[in-house]
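Thread: "does anyone have the structure for this chain?"

Original post by V.I.:
We have the sequence but no experimental structure in hand. Need at least a predicted one for the grant figures.
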Amino acid sequence: MGRLFVVQLEGKIYSCKHCKTHLAVYEDIISKSFHCKHGKAYLFNKVSNVTIGETEDRMMMTGKHTVADIFCVSCGSIVGWRYETAHEKSQKYKEGKSVLERFKISGPDGSNYWVSSHGRHIGGSDADDS
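Reply from O.Q.:
Generated one for you, tokens below.
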């Protein structure tokens, strides 16, 4: 394995909750109204310090998409997914964008989301969530 280069971001930063590696900045959020099996997820225009897994077709709430899981480059934890292809015309805006699962990242203020053993959100939020 080669040398690991990690980009240090500036501003309001979202980071891996396991190793604190910077993943994205607040200004790159496109939408906070995405959902995953652990609760909330945010669509970002750009993410950093991730590796991209194998692509696969998945049937999601908004139709069929070709996606790839994304992993923290430092610790290897899965942190979300990247939209490679949207098969529905109305969903094309997602192509090339990434979703970070809120449960798997720390917010700019260091906050985390917590999920109970029953899969329900029980605490944690960003100060700017509305």
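V.I.: this helps a lot. Confidence is low (pLDDT under 50) at residues 115-125.
O.Q.: and The longest strand covers residues 50-60.
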